[in-house]
Amino acid sequence: MAWQPVVKRSVSADVFEQIAADVLSGELSPGTALPSERQLAEALGVSRPAVREALQRLAAAGLVAVRQGDATTVLDYRRGAGLEVLPRLLIQQGTLEPAVARSILEARLHNGPKVAELAAARADREQLGAALDRTVAALAAETDPIARQRHALEFWDHVVDAADSIVFRLMFNMLRAAYEPALAALAPLMTAEVGNAPGYRDLAAAIVAGRPNKAAEKARALLEPATTALIDALDGH
What we know:
Blueprint (H helix, E strand, L loop, with lengths): L10 H15 L11 H8 L3 H13 L3 E2 L7 E2 L2 H4 L5 H5 E2 L2 E2 L1 H25 L2 H17 L3 H19 L2 H14 L3 H12 L2 H12 L3 H23 L3
Antiparallel strand pairs: 1-2, 3-4
Helix pairs in contact: 1-3, 2-3, 6-8, 6-9, 6-11, 6-12, 7-8, 7-11, 8-9, 8-10, 10-12, 11-12
């Protein structure tokens, strides 16, 4: 591989991004020993402290193992990394990765109905109802496909808050972080779903009415058709 000189202001962050990209793309395979700190610093044109800081971040992300007095080795990110690597996996070298996009859509379809069910059981209905009404109205009035996706994300942000689950909140944060950079690429595929204002309105009504089973049903009805179509499109069907 060809290491590139670092030119960004945050030197250690750029070192981190270069190595992380090579690990996540598979160019650096699990078990590969990285060059020493000194060799990396020379190849990248940066200081050894910057390299050391980047390696510590890579280790914290579950991408490498740093052992004192031994070589830093690449780990299998599928075994040790967390959801924070999703944004980097979804868009690699400016290209949407279909397999990662499919996984995100599958997780969304699995989690969405449960989050809606919890929101219906736990929400402050008056406060949530007003927030969802505003969001659905904005979604219905919008014509720009990317802006519509943002309104849809705002809708689910309110629902996740109402579900009062820290695990679902953190999962949503990471899925959203992965999804947002791909809004433009996904816009043609998401048109049907984010254009379905009545579907969002029905889901909001079920949640605000405090009907957990109905909310889960409406969430699946909203998410499943577009998710299936998106997965088929990504798989080339």
